[in-house]
Amino acid sequence: MLRFISISIFFWRIMGTKTPSKKVLAIIAAAGLGFLTACSINSGKNLPHLGIAKPATLEEIAEAKPEKTQLYMYDNDTLVINFGHNYAQQNATFGRIGTLCEGYGVERNVLPKEASAIGARAVGHDYTSTELALFYNLARGQSLNRSERQLRELVIENGLIADVNGTYEPVQTESCIISFIHNSQWRDILAHELSHAEYFTNDTYREYCNNFWNEVMTPDDRKGFTNFLRWDYYDITNTDLTINETQAYLANTCDMYSSSLFNMPEGRADELRAQFIKDSPVPSFCETLDSKINGEQ
User: Fold this and answer.
1) Using CA atoms, how far apart are residues 227 and 268, in angstroms rounded to an integer?
2) Using CA atoms in the order 208, 211, 212, 217, what is the torsion angle rounded to 10 degrees?
3) What Å distances lie between residue 19 and 26, 218, 241, 263, 265, CA to CA?
4) In the chain, what are the domain boundaries?
5) How far is CA 208 from the centre of its chain?
6) Among candidates 211, 206, 207, 244, which has minimal Cα distance to 225?
């Protein structure tokens, strides 16, 4: 999942290496979440019925027009929703799922009553079929908004989860759904979310990411990423989530990536990124999107 990175960079640089206090975090969260919740969760803009996803290449997804919400199936295991300019619709759909699956200090066996900062501020989302099944099992007998209900029908219709004797179960444990909005940073958002999809669905890539985290990155490198993710409301007690987010920043966050973002010595983040991309079994989606957009392929 990708948050408003520009806001995060601003406050993170102000704080320097100091971890923000709970009071500071609460003030920032209240100000940002109050506005974003008003314009998204309570906006009344709902996910439309999108039907069966059509298979699409990365190039076809990248060429999509942002005027309306569109659905694709990428690489046979990744459902992709392009919400166009409709940020409100995206977060009404995924806000509480993001809170449940990734939020810091959130109980994983209780349906969130509302989206927290991590769910309500996202410009992109990514969840496995297992996480979708968890959310909708917890939601049985409880109130869902219209977009959440539409999403449930969508992921059932497209074979990510199924109702088996009254319990939602993943049809394929390594299938997933990602989404993005088509703003000025849409390339970064799409690449970042595709990187998460690769982590979910590609065992070889996931093993590479875990080895890079444990064997290549130093304790200070890991601390830099972990502190940033904690400040951005991720559940850093979940090591798999932390590694997944780290690899997406390393490989596929194009123009929004810098050493200062992670409080590292100048140039260190670039060194890590270059080594990660060079040795990775999967090409950088950022570089691939660049080449396609610029007509080099």
Assistant:
1) 16
2) 170
3) 13, 20, 20, 11, 17
4) 202-293
5) 20
6) 244
